[in-house]
Amino acid sequence: MGNSMGGRKKAKVMKIDGETIKLKTPIRAWDVVKDYPGHVLLESEAVKHYGIRAKPLEPQQDLKPKKIYFLVELQKFPDDKAPRRVRSGGIHMSAKDRLECLKLSRRTVSDVSMVRASSSLGLMGSDLLSPGD
Length: 133
What we know:
Elements lengths: L9 E6 L4 E5 L4 H5 L5 E5 H7 L17 E6 L21 H27 L3 H5 L4
Parallel strand pairs: 1-4
Antiparallel strand pairs: 1-2, 3-4
Protein backbone atom coordinates (compact mmCIF):
# COMPACT_ATOMS: atom_id res chain seq x y z
CA MET A 1 0.00 0.00 0.00
CA GLY A 2 2.84 2.38 0.75
CA ASN A 3 4.49 1.62 -2.58
CA SER A 4 1.59 3.07 -4.53
CA MET A 5 2.11 6.51 -3.02
CA GLY A 6 5.51 7.37 -4.44
CA GLY A 7 6.85 7.61 -7.96
CA ARG A 8 3.63 6.75 -9.77
CA LYS A 9 2.86 10.29 -10.82
CA LYS A 10 6.28 11.09 -12.18
CA ALA A 11 7.64 11.16 -15.69
CA LYS A 12 11.29 10.46 -16.41
CA VAL A 13 13.33 12.60 -18.78
CA MET A 14 16.67 11.20 -19.87
CA LYS A 15 19.41 13.42 -21.24
CA ILE A 16 21.86 12.27 -23.90
CA ASP A 17 24.60 11.89 -21.28
CA GLY A 18 22.45 9.41 -19.33
CA GLU A 19 21.36 11.76 -16.56
CA THR A 20 17.73 11.18 -15.56
CA ILE A 21 15.35 13.85 -14.32
CA LYS A 22 12.16 12.80 -12.52
CA LEU A 23 9.32 15.29 -12.86
CA LYS A 24 5.96 15.45 -11.13
CA THR A 25 3.06 15.36 -13.52
CA PRO A 26 1.14 17.17 -14.83
CA ILE A 27 3.86 19.15 -16.56
CA ARG A 28 4.06 20.44 -20.12
CA ALA A 29 6.92 19.77 -22.53
CA TRP A 30 7.64 23.51 -22.69
CA ASP A 31 8.35 23.61 -18.96
CA VAL A 32 11.14 21.06 -19.50
CA VAL A 33 12.75 22.36 -22.70
CA LYS A 34 12.69 26.06 -21.77
CA ASP A 35 15.90 25.53 -19.79
CA TYR A 36 17.55 23.74 -22.74
CA PRO A 37 17.54 25.93 -25.87
CA GLY A 38 17.59 23.95 -29.12
CA HIS A 39 16.41 20.76 -27.40
CA VAL A 40 13.19 18.79 -27.84
CA LEU A 41 11.46 15.96 -25.99
CA LEU A 42 10.84 12.61 -27.67
CA GLU A 43 8.65 9.84 -26.28
CA SER A 44 10.65 6.67 -25.75
CA GLU A 45 7.97 4.57 -27.47
CA ALA A 46 8.09 6.83 -30.55
CA VAL A 47 11.87 6.49 -30.66
CA LYS A 48 11.53 2.72 -30.32
CA HIS A 49 9.15 2.53 -33.28
CA TYR A 50 10.39 5.33 -35.57
CA GLY A 51 14.03 5.85 -34.57
CA ILE A 52 15.41 9.19 -35.73
CA ARG A 53 12.14 9.94 -37.53
CA ALA A 54 10.25 10.20 -34.23
CA LYS A 55 8.31 13.44 -33.93
CA PRO A 56 9.13 15.75 -31.01
CA LEU A 57 6.42 16.59 -28.50
CA GLU A 58 4.57 19.82 -29.01
CA PRO A 59 5.42 22.51 -26.40
CA GLN A 60 1.88 22.49 -24.98
CA GLN A 61 1.70 18.68 -24.73
CA ASP A 62 1.53 17.18 -21.23
CA LEU A 63 4.04 14.57 -20.12
CA LYS A 64 2.36 11.37 -18.99
CA PRO A 65 3.12 9.70 -15.66
CA LYS A 66 5.24 6.52 -15.72
CA LYS A 67 6.57 7.36 -19.21
CA ILE A 68 10.16 7.93 -20.30
CA TYR A 69 11.13 10.84 -22.51
CA PHE A 70 14.43 11.71 -24.18
CA LEU A 71 15.79 15.26 -24.14
CA VAL A 72 17.79 15.65 -27.35
CA GLU A 73 19.30 18.53 -29.25
CA LEU A 74 18.10 19.14 -32.78
CA GLN A 75 20.70 19.56 -35.49
CA LYS A 76 20.80 23.06 -36.83
CA PHE A 77 20.73 23.44 -40.58
CA PRO A 78 21.70 26.75 -42.13
CA ASP A 79 18.59 28.42 -43.53
CA ASP A 80 20.40 30.78 -45.88
CA LYS A 81 21.89 28.04 -48.05
CA ALA A 82 19.98 26.53 -50.93
CA PRO A 83 20.03 22.75 -51.26
CA ARG A 84 23.16 21.51 -52.98
CA ARG A 85 22.95 20.00 -56.41
CA VAL A 86 24.91 16.87 -56.96
CA ARG A 87 27.06 16.73 -60.06
CA SER A 88 29.16 14.04 -61.56
CA GLY A 89 32.60 15.35 -60.72
CA GLY A 90 34.67 13.19 -63.06
CA ILE A 91 32.50 13.47 -66.18
CA HIS A 92 33.44 16.34 -68.47
CA MET A 93 31.48 15.86 -71.69
CA SER A 94 28.67 17.54 -73.53
CA ALA A 95 25.07 16.39 -73.40
CA LYS A 96 25.38 15.06 -76.95
CA ASP A 97 28.40 12.96 -75.95
CA ARG A 98 26.57 11.62 -72.89
CA LEU A 99 23.57 10.65 -75.02
CA GLU A 100 25.81 8.85 -77.50
CA CYS A 101 27.54 7.06 -74.65
CA LEU A 102 24.16 5.93 -73.25
CA LYS A 103 23.11 4.67 -76.67
CA LEU A 104 26.32 2.68 -76.97
CA SER A 105 25.97 1.21 -73.49
CA ARG A 106 22.38 0.11 -74.19
CA ARG A 107 23.40 -1.43 -77.48
CA THR A 108 26.31 -3.23 -75.86
CA VAL A 109 24.10 -4.70 -73.15
CA SER A 110 21.48 -5.85 -75.64
CA ASP A 111 24.13 -7.37 -77.92
CA VAL A 112 25.66 -9.27 -75.03
CA SER A 113 22.30 -10.58 -73.87
CA MET A 114 21.46 -11.65 -77.44
CA VAL A 115 24.74 -13.59 -77.69
CA ARG A 116 24.11 -15.25 -74.34
CA ALA A 117 20.57 -16.20 -75.34
CA SER A 118 21.70 -17.76 -78.61
CA SER A 119 24.56 -19.66 -76.94
CA SER A 120 22.24 -21.01 -74.24
CA LEU A 121 19.90 -22.29 -76.94
CA GLY A 122 22.80 -24.01 -78.65
CA LEU A 123 22.29 -22.23 -81.97
CA MET A 124 25.84 -22.06 -83.29
CA GLY A 125 27.09 -20.23 -80.24
CA SER A 126 30.68 -21.14 -81.02
CA ASP A 127 30.36 -19.68 -84.56
CA LEU A 128 29.17 -16.34 -83.18
CA LEU A 129 32.16 -16.03 -80.89
CA SER A 130 34.88 -17.23 -83.31
CA PRO A 131 36.63 -14.61 -85.42
CA GLY A 132 37.40 -15.29 -89.04
CA ASP A 133 34.05 -16.02 -90.72
